[in-house]
């Protein structure tokens, strides 16, 4: 299979829109071979020794570039990183040769326990030093630069001393990592905390951003307070599309992923979201071309 993959679509992720790959859509993608730029997967779902998931992923990798978006490395944990998990991630990177690799600015394991949730950090110099050490360790193990993603947040710690966006960018600068800018997460966090979306995005150097994420979110009532929750269970909302359009109009298009991880629709609905994002990208590219004539 390694020889087959070497002859497939080139590994780099193209300047196009892509989608999160879900088991529900395996068959439709293989049979229809839709005109889509790339797919992104959570590597933790493919760390077994075999079975249908790996078989399907190998087949789809023959036709499309991949990005690996990890959810279990736990960069922000106060404990040492899980070496077995890192080695499993490295094996997948070597097997599938993804164009991009990313992880979250969060933590997910403590003493003898793991959670599927991405837990928030306390933004201090001490935690910044620790997460930089962990990013360095991951990049050294993989032999690759990774992207780190800004979180969606629902609370703030009194102990935090550094603004979230400053902490996020500084972690990448000190480790040599790139940034994954999740525009939905920016909107969710800023809405929940009363922060300025414009100031948050302005603090993120565009030249460090290698990928954009877009997703849907829900609005929940928490004891009379309206809370936006990044559940990836619905279409991208109008406000996030507007932020995305403004961002790429100002800075240029980047590989853009549509995430849909709960209430997963039929592939046709997900594909329509991907095509919508690509229309924004194409219009931006055309405008940039006209401006240079």
Average pLDDT figure? 88
Helix content: 40-55%
CATH class type: Alpha Beta
* Tally of distinct domains: 1
- Going by CATH, what is the homologous superfamily? Divalent-metal-dependent TIM barrel enzymes
State the low-pLDDT regions, or none.
Answer: 1-10
Q: In the CATH hierarchy, what is the architecture at level 2?
A: Alpha-Beta Barrel
**Helices and strands: which structural class?**
alpha/beta
- CATH topology, by name, is TIM Barrel
Biggest sheet statistics: 8 strands, parallel, barrel
Distance between the termini: 46 Å
Strand order of the largest sheet: 1-2-3-4-7-8-9-12
- Summed up, the helix count is 10
Number of strands: 12
Instruction: Write down the overall geometry.
Output: globular
Reading the helices and strands in chain order gives HEHEHEHEEEHEHEHHEEEHEH
**Integer-rounded radius of gyration:** 19 Å
Strand content: 15-25%
Comma- or semicolon-separated keywords:
293 residues, alpha/beta, TIM Barrel, 8-stranded parallel barrel, two-stranded antiparallel ribbon, 10 helices, 12 strands, 19% strand, globular, disordered N terminus
Topology:
Layout: H1 2-6, E1 17-20, H2 26-32, E2 39-41, H3 52-61, E3 66-69, H4 83-96, E4 100-104, E5 107-110, E6 113-119, H5 125-142, E7 147-149, H6 164-175, E8 178-182, H7 183-193, H8 197-202, E9 209-215, E10 218-222, E11 225-229, H9 238-251, E12 256-259, H10 267-292
Parallel strand pairs: 1-2, 1-12, 2-3, 3-4, 4-7, 7-8, 8-9, 9-12
Antiparallel strand pairs: 5-6, 10-11
Helix pairs in contact: 5-6, 9-10
Report on this structure:
By secondary structure, this protein is of the alpha/beta class. It has a single domain (2-292), classed as TIM Barrel, CATH 3.20.20. The protein has helices spanning 2-6, 26-32, 52-61, 83-96, 125-142, 164-175, 183-193, 197-202, 238-251, 267-292, and strands spanning 17-20, 39-41, 66-69, 100-104, 107-110, 113-119, 147-149, 178-182, 209-215, 218-222, 225-229, 256-259. The strands form three sheets. The chain has an eight-stranded parallel β-barrel with strand order 1-2-3-4-7-8-9-12, surrounded by four helices. Strands 5-6 form a two-stranded antiparallel sheet. Helix 9 runs parallel beside helix 10 (267-292). The longest helix is centred in the C-terminal third of the chain and has 26 residues, at 267-292.
């Amino acid at each position: 299979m390694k020889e087959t993959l070497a002859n497939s679509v080139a590994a780099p992720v193209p300047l196009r829109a892509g989608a999160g790959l879900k088991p529900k859509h395996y068959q439709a993608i293989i049979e229809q071979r839709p005109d889509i730029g790339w797919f992104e997967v959570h590597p933790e779902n493919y760390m077994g020794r075999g079975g249908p998931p790996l078989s399907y992923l190998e087949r789809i990798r023959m036709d499309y570039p991949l990005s690996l978006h990890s959810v279990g490395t736990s960069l922000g944990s106060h404990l040492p990183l899980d070496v077995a998990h890192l080695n499993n991630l490295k094996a997948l990177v070597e097997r599938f040769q993804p164009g991009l690799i990313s992880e979250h600015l969060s933590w997910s394991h403590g003493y003898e326990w793991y959670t599927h949730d991405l837990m928030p950090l306390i933004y201090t110099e001490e935690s910044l030093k620790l997460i930089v050490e962990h990013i360095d360790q991951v990049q050294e193990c993989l032999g690759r630069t990774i992207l780190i993603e800004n979180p969606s947040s629902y609370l703030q710690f009194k102990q935090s001393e550094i603004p979230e966006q400053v902490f996020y960018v500084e972690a990448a600068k000190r480790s040599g990592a790139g940034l994954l800018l999740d525009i939905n997460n920016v909107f969710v966090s800023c809405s929940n905390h009363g922060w300025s979306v414009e100031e948050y995005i302005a603090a993120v150097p565009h030249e460090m951003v290698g990928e954009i994420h877009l997703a849907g979110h829900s609005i929940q009532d928490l004891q009379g307070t309206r809370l936006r929750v990044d559940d990836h269970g619905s279409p991208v909302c109008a406000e996030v599309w507007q932020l995305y359009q403004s961002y790429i109009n100002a800075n240029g298009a980047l590989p853009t992923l549509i995430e849909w991880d709960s209430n997963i629709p039929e592939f046709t609905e997900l594909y329509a979201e991907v095509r919508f994002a690509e229309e924004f990208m194409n219009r931006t590219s055309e405008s940039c071309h006209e401006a240079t004539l």
